[in-house]
C-alpha cells in the first residue's frame, strides 16, 4: 500500500471540515468569525483562489456552493439568523484584536 501524500491528507481533512460545517447549520458564520477569524465564505474564497492559482476558473458563487453544499442564497434563507447585538459587538472586538 502506498503512503498517502501530504496533499491527499490535507484534502481529506478539508473535505471533513466542509462536511462538518455542512452538517452544523446551527453554527452561524458570525460565530465562526468571532472565534476563528474565518467562516464558510472564507473557505469558499480560499477554494476559488486555489483553483485560480492552478489555472482553473471558478466563480465565487460556485466555490461557496461547494462549501455550503447548496447555493448560498438557499443556505441563508434556510439557516442564517440575524446577528444579535452581542454577536455584532463580539465581532467588532474580534476584528480589532485580529485586525
Note the main attributes of this structure.
99 residues; SMc04008-like fold; mainly alpha
Label the CATH architecture: Orthogonal Bundle
CATH-defined topology: SMc04008-like fold
Report the strand count: 0
Shape: globular
The biggest sheet, with number of strands, parallel, antiparallel or mixed sense and barrel status, is: none
CATH 4th-level superfamily = SMc04008-like
Number of helices: 6
Unreliable segments of 5+ consecutive residues: none
According to CATH, what is the class? Mainly Alpha
SS-based structural class? mainly alpha
Pfam family, one: DUF1244
Organism: Tahibacter aquaticus
InterPro entries: SMc04008-like_domain (IPR023163), SMc04008-like_sf (IPR036810)
Protein name: SMc04008-like domain-containing protein
Walkthrough of the structure:
The structure is a single chain. This protein is an all-alpha fold and 99 residues long. The protein has a single domain, classed as SMc04008-like (SMc04008-like fold, Orthogonal Bundle), CATH 1.10.3340.10. The chain has 6 helices and no strands. The protein has helices at residues 6-23, 29-36, 40-53, 60-68, 72-79, 85-98. Helix 3 packs across helix 4. The relative contact order is 0.13. The mean pLDDT is 95.
Amino acid at each position: 500500500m502506498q503512503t498517502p501524500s501530504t496533499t491527499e491528507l490535507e484534502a481529506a481533512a478539508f473535505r471533513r471540515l466542509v462536511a462538518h460545517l455542512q452538517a452544523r447549520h446551527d453554527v452561524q458564520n458570525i460565530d465562526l468569525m468571532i472565534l476563528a477569524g474565518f467562516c464558510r465564505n472564507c473557505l469558499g474564497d480560499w477554494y476559488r483562489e486555489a483553483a485560480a492559482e492552478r489555472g482553473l476558473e471558478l466563480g465565487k458563487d460556485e466555490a461557496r456552493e461547494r462549501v455550503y453544499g447548496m447555493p448560498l442564497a438557499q443556505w441563508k434563507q434556510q439557516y442564517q439568523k440575524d446577528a444579535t447585538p452581542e454577536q455584532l459587538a463580539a465581532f467588532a472586538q474580534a476584528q480589532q484584536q485580529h485586525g
